[in-house]
Specification:
Number of helices: 4
Mean pLDDT: 92
Order of helices and strands: EEEHEHHHE
Helix content: 25-40%
Radius of gyration: 14 Å
Strand order of the largest sheet: 4-3-2-1-5
Strand content: 25-35%
Number of domains: 1
Low-confidence stretches: none
Shape: globular
Structural class: alpha+beta
Largest sheet: 5 strands, antiparallel
Distance between the termini: 13 Å
Length: about 110
């Protein structure tokens, strides 16, 4: 299982998880949910108490990935499988993205 913190304008909005079977979950933090001034991160992932689940990476996050030759260069240089969308997302969306969302890998706790 791999986890990433989803930031909206540098505030933690929720957690994105990829399970070992390849399925994904996204859940907003309770503190995000209780603050009426905090928006949903996407129209397709509106604020709700429910946990979003999917058999593939959510389209909102997939659309944050680099494309074409940029993806090829990143994958080759960083030795990431081109089909590892979650790995690419955690690598490329942690520092600078177009928009207010960033995705940062959560380190596994021992």
């Amino acid at each position: 299982m791999r986890k990433a913190i989803v930031l909206y304008k540098d505030d933690e909005a929720g957690v994105l998880i990829q399970h070992d079977d390849g399925t994904f979950k996204f859940r907003y933090h309770e503190s995000w949910m209780t603050d009426s001034k905090k928006p949903g991160i996407s129209l397709t992932l509106p604020k709700t108490q429910q946990t979003y689940t999917s058999n593939y990476i959510f389209p909102f996050f997939y659309n944050m990935l680099p494309e074409g030759s940029n993806r090829e260069v990143i994958c080759k240089h960083l030795r990431i499988d081109p089909d590892d969308y979650f790995g690419i997302l955690m690598t490329t969306a942690k520092i600078d993205t177009i928009g207010a969302i960033r995705v940062i890998k959560m380190e596994a706790k021992e």
